[in-house]
Amino acid sequence: MVEPVGNHYVIARPVYSESLFNEEHGKLHRYHKTFWDHLKLYFRCTPQRLKKIALGLFPVVSWLPTYRFREWILGDIVAGINTGLVAVLQGLAFALLVNVPPSYGLYAVFFPVLVYFIFGTSRHISVGPFPVLSLMVGGAVVRLVPDDSTGNGTSTNMSAINDERVMVAASVTFLSGVFQLLLGIIQVGFIVIYLSQSLISGFTTAAAIHVVVSQLKFILQLPVPGFNKPFGIIYTLESVFSQITKTNIADLVTSLLVLLIVFVVKEVNDRYKAKLPIPIPVELLVTVLAALISYFVNFEEKFNVAVVGKLEEGFQAPAAPDAGVLQKCVGDSISIAIVGFAVAFSVAKVYSIKHDYPLDGNQELIAFGLGNIVGGSFKGFASSTALSRSGVQESTGGKTQIAGVISALIVLIVILAIGFLLAPLQKSVLAALALGNLKGMLMQFKEIGVLWRKDKYDCVIWVVTFLAAVFLGLDIGLATAVAFQLLTVVIRSQIPSCTVLANVGRSNIYRNRKDYTDIYEPEGVKIFRCSSPIFFANIEFFREKLITAVGFNPLRVLRKRNKALRKIRKMLKKGELQVTPVCLICMANHTHESDEELDNNRIEELDQPTNMTDLPIQINWGADLPPGITVPQVNIHSIVLDFSSVSFLDFSAMRVLQKTLKEFVRINIDIYIAGAHEGFLDKLERCAFFDEEIKPSMFFLTIHDAVLHILMKKDIASSPKLKLTEEKGSSNNYIIIPSNGLRSRECTV
């Protein structure tokens, strides 16, 4: 019964142990499904389930029939045109990161969009190349098809190298799509949870640094070979600075001007986005202007700048991936698959929350997997999403993936009809545009200070991820970062927070005794909390902390007591002790005997419960003992373990916990466990945790229930201190006011 009194509440209920509560309130023993039950349910075939699977596999079927044509079509058209223009330029720019001819970047922004339209669940992201993924694919490309080291840069040689690189990029993309598709089919979309926000932030920032370094050769127009190996970034910088005097000044000046214009206009777009109807398409304007100037001034002949050149017109026939490449790029493909999905899903989640619609992680894996399989078959490279491109699609009025289809139409027009207009465009302009899209990633350096103040573990994860990805490469760096992040989880769970609690304000609230001044600690009672799961890796730490909290080692006390009993029996047998009704009197001079002599090769007997049945008097371990017999003092009689934060207990830890609790019980200390979650007792019973010493009656609903039970038990044992006041109108309800002053109402005493 709850009685509200102003902003207080008074609860009248019995003190409950777990077993008493379950018995009184009729706990149901529910049947819990086994693994095979879930498996049967998963593969069960019904018309309703088939319909659900079909709608889940083809999300377009569920939203396209309800498309609000009049309300949404104009916004989707405007967004599609703007996104398509940006996608064309980013496709060309990011192709440089992959080390393939720019025209192949257009395939990467065309095919995946159409596939995602059918299979994707996000309505707002723009599917296509992402700088980090492009760089990861480029790393595999350079490793398998290095630059021509002979210096024979003939057109035939370059064409052959480019063809090989295109095949490698397409094969890596195809294999990463297969991995994503398989992960989606076996329903492991949750894999993204192992990439924390700190890890993703540090990784993408490191990737941005790699992008900057990789584009220096286009900005400066230097023949820099690729170094896809640990510390490759250092070798690349060394190569750049060793040739710095050969810089093409025209390319450098053009790149700096483009970067300046892009950064300024993007800042204007961000600052005045509420007032601008659509963001200023700075990439489009800069590209058109740069292409026109390069064409009319003839930069290629006058200043020997590198230009895009003739773009491939139309589409190439789909090709099967190279089996030899697939065998050599399994690790790269797995990294690309996971990073691509993690980035895309995190961006899609932002928009799904903003516009209130659901996302399906497994279906997203299937959509991106199929997109990469199709894109790789048509010689594109890996796709995900770019935050800047998705931002354009959403901010210009895009409502659905109809905008994506329209953006694909813009790309199609460029591929089929007007691609030749981009032939005079300098590669340094595309490199500058690629760098212009990295502002958001590079600004993530600010997170270091914020994370250090908020969570030092996350800050360390960020820094380690960044350094590993920068110096070891993106593939090895990602694996290192994930391993380190999981290691921090193990460390944090292996060293859990263990505290001693006390009653605060004489209420039912228990907090860390070090944090408050108005506390009450019942005499002889220790309340110990472990705020972590208990398993094989941290059970010894838990045991050590518990022993530190109570101030003695129960096993040592038990052994000392058993040794003392052996010595007492020996002295009684020799007549050196005289028995009185209250104590034992020593009748002879004490002679010291070593512990080794007393053990007599029976050390295992010292760990058994103390047995005084054969003695003429019960030994009071707290009183004076005969000379020469000493045992550690124990000043507590009860321990309450707060298990409210213990989410699971594995079998190995269970055995150590059982042994530890028995050691306390054998030295006459009562053990109580409070706040254990549902199913905890059932698991302990299944694992034969309970016996004559460890019983289910030690479990209580709350800490307060356990403490009140202890106080009543001790007060009843010393009846002069117990005050019982029978309530009016009730014959079996009492208000118990123990000597400590804590109030509780109990049905039976």
Secondary-structure map with pairings?
Blueprint: E1 2-5, E2 8-11, H1 18-24, H2 35-42, H3 47-57, H4 60-63, H5 69-98, H6 104-108, H7 111-119, E3 127-128, H8 131-144, H9 155-185, H10 197-220, H11 232-242, H12 249-271, H13 282-297, H14 299-302, H15 323-328, H16 330-355, H17 361-377, E4 384-385, H18 387-395, H19 402-418, H20 427-436, H21 439-442, H22 447-454, H23 456-472, H24 474-494, E5 498-504, E6 510-512, E7 519-520, E8 525-530, H25 539-550, H26 554-574, E9 577-579, E10 584-586, H27 595-599, E11 638-642, H28 651-665, E12 670-674, H29 680-686, E13 699-700, H30 703-717, E14 723-726, E15 734-737, E16 744-746
Parallel strand pairs: 8-11, 11-12, 12-13
Antiparallel strand pairs: 1-2, 3-4, 5-6, 5-7, 5-8, 9-10, 14-15, 15-16
Give a written overview of the molecule:
It is a single chain. The chain is α+β, with helices and mostly antiparallel strands and 749 residues long. The protein folds into two domains: 74-146 and 160-491, no CATH class; 498-552 and 634-717, STAS domain (Transcription Regulator spoIIAA, 2-Layer Sandwich), CATH 3.30.750.24. Helix content is 54%, strand content 8%. Strands 5, 6, 7, 8, 11, 12 and 13 form a seven-stranded mixed sheet that branches. The chain has a three-stranded antiparallel sheet with strand order 14-15-16, with no helix packed on it. Strands 1-2 form a two-stranded antiparallel ribbon. Helix 7 (111-119) runs antiparallel to helix 19 (402-418). The longest helix has 31 residues, at 155-185. The two termini are 19 Å apart. 39% of the residues are buried. It is found in: Membrane. One of its GO terms (cellular component) is membrane. It is a multi-pass membrane protein. The chain crosses the membrane at residues 77-98, 104-120, 127-146, 166-192, 199-220, 240-264, 276-297, 334-353, 365-382, 402-423, 460-487. Pfam families: STAS (PF01740), Sulfate_transp (PF00916).
